[in-house]
Amino acid sequence: MTALPVSIIGVPTDVGAGTRGASMGPEALRIAGIVKAIGQFGLAVKDCGNLPGPTNPDLPAVDGFRHMSEVVAWNRSLHDAVYVELRGESLPIILGGDHCLAIGSISAVARRCRETGKKLRVLWFDAHADFNTATMTPSGNIHGMPVACLCGYGPSRLTEIGGHVPAISPQEIRLIGIRSVDAGEKCFLAEIGIEVFDMRYVDEVGMRRTMEQALAGICSETHLHVSLDVDFLDPEIAPGVGTTVRGGPTYREAQLCMEMVADTGRLCSLDIAELNPALDRRNMTAELAVDLVESLFGKSTLMRMHQ
C-alpha cells in the first residue's frame, strides 16, 4: 500500500444538502478515531483541521440552485487545500460535509493528474448517481449534482473550479452501489456513457466481480481517488445519513470493496461525505466509516497465501 504521508482536511459544511447536520461530520470522524486508525499503519498523519467557510443560510433555491455562493466558496477553498497537499506529495483525506465537496476535491486531483501525466480513476461509492442538473431536480440541492459538474454539466462557477472544463471525462469515473436515480438522470447517464454498477448488478454478479470491473485497467501510473458517500451503505448498518436508501451493501460487501482498493496499492486521495451525526446512533456510522478507511489502508483479517 502507499507510503505517502496522509493529510486530513475537514470540510464542516452542509450547504449542498437538503438536511442539516453533515457539517458535524468531520468532528464525528475524529471522535471515532480516524487519525489513530490511519497512524497504526506506520504512516505520518497530519490533521490540517477544518477549512473555514460560510455558514448555511438555509434558503430556498434561486434559479435552480440552493446556496450557490456558499457552495462555490467551500469548493474553491477545498480545491486549493487539496491541491497544496497533492503538490507536497501527500495523500489528502477529506472529511465531509455533504457530497458537493467532491467538486472541489476531485477537480484538484484532476488538475494534479494533468500536470503530472497520471491517469485518473474515480470510484464513486454512493446510493445516488449525483448526476442531476438544475433542470432535473426540484430541490436545487447541489449535493445531487457533483458528478455532473465534474463532467462539465453545470454552472461555470462550479465546472471551472479546477481551471479545466470538464474536470474529468466520463471514462474516468465508476459509480458503485447506485439504487436511487431520477428518471431524467437515468437517461442523462446513459447518454454520457458513465459506467454505473447499480445494486441490481451487484446482486447479479457479486461484489467481487463488480469491483474487478471497476478497477480494471488501473496501473502504476494511475491516481485512484475514492469518493465515499456514507449512504452507499445499507441504512441498517449506517443510519447517520440524510438520504437513506434501503438495499445497500452489507458490512462485508463494503469491506470487500475497500480491501480490493487497498490491494491495488494505488489509493492516492479520499473523500468521506454525507455523514450526519444528528441522525446517527451513538456515532456508529462514523465508527463504521473509520473501519472502512482502515481496510482502505490495508487492514485485513489474515495474511493471504493465495488470491
From TrEMBL:
Entry keyword annotation includes Metal-binding: yes
Catalytic activity entry: L-arginine + H2O = urea + L-ornithine
Cofactor note: Binds 2 manganese ions per subunit.
Coiled coil: none
Record-linked InterPro entries: Arginase, Ureohydrolase, Ureohydrolase_dom_sf, Ureohydrolase_Mn_BS
rRNA-binding recorded as keyword: no
Family listed: Belongs to the arginase family.
UniProt protein name: Arginase
Organism (species): Candidatus Accumulibacter cognatus
